[in-house]
Amino acid sequence: MAGLEGIFNRGPVTGVARPAGESKIDHTVGASGAVRTQLAGGWLTQLALHSSLQPIEQLYRKLPSDGIYSATPSHPFTIEMGTYTVPANMVLFVLDWRFDLYKPNGAIVGDTRPVPDRSWSLSIGWDVLFSDKHQGVNNFEITPALPPAGVVDQQPNFGFPSPDDAFTKMRALNTQLPGGAGGAMLPQRHRRDVQVTMPFTYILEANQNLRMRMIAINPVSIALAFFEAEFSGLIVPANAFKRFIAAAAPAVEFIQNP
What is the DSSP string of 106-158? Predict the structure, then answer.
């Protein structure tokens, strides 16, 4: 220990070691009392998957049925893509999901290829349910709505639509309501937009289920090979998740009222 004291001089208040002979450096300590450190191995240790985490990815493919060629807004056609139930004593983190349509490849017999992104955007929508409920406040207009008549310069309404605007939106959403998804029906796109990079995810606890389905609200004009839906995430033991939440104290200073 005496040798180590000769090599490293401890700071008077921060406790951060520094080589002998080096000029004193002021270390800024945050309100939580934390000092930024560099882990050995850099990003490697942060990217490594912990043994308590189990990656999961489920992919569902379903053949088309005749109902997709005769679907109407008043009589939509639904295909159940797949349902996953979280095992007992586990927690599911849903990090991403993706949808796709495939059509036969005219150049190669027996081969298929994805349709161009957002094709049949007025005919097909997707629905994701968490234990038969929709998470979040989502409102997607599959059928385009008419703009309010006579509105030239509308002031911002901070999330509340004007009466005329609400009427046109509801008229467009009427094509989605018979399908059971309403405004939460996702438009035809390969994956979620923007949300993949946002710092949040969906959490399902034990015995809850994730349900994915396709809803056709207008006839499909060509023969499709199959529908595809998938999600990916992490399976975590429930006890490990509780410890993680308990240890994730916010690094901010709390000011108590006198």
Answer: TTSTT-EEEPPTTTTTTTEEEEEEETTB--S-----SSPPPPPTT-SSPPP-T
Q: 113, 101, 110, 171: which is closest to 143 by C-alpha? A: 171
Would you say residue 28 lies in a domain? no
Number of separate domains in the chain? 1
pLDDT one-digit tens code per residue, 207-226: 999 999 999 999 998 899 99
Q: What average pLDDT does the chain have?
A: 78
Residue 154 in any domain: the answer is no
Percentages helix, strand, coil for the chain, rounded to the nearest 5? Answer: 15, 30, 55
Residue 228 half-sphere exposure toward CB, CA atoms < 13 A: 16
Please give the single-letter amino acid code of residue 222.
I
Q: Tell me the residue range of the domain where 82 lies.
A: 55-149+160-244
DSSP H helical ranges for the chain: 2-7, 44-47, 163-173, 238-247
pLDDT of residue 110: 87
Residue 182 placed within a domain: yes
Residues contacting residue 187 through CB under 8 Å, at least 6 positions apart: 118, 121, 125, 126, 140, 142
- In this structure, is residue 111 part of a structural domain? yes
Rounded to whole angstroms, the Cα distance separating 204 from 242 reads 13
Contacts for 148 with CB less than 8 Å, ≥ 6 apart = 154, 162, 164, 165, 168
| Euclidean distance between the first and the last CA atom of the chain, given in angstroms as a whole number | 45
The 10s digit of each residue's pLDDT in 42-96 is 777 777 777 788 999 999 999 999 999 999 888 899 999 999 999 999 999 998 8
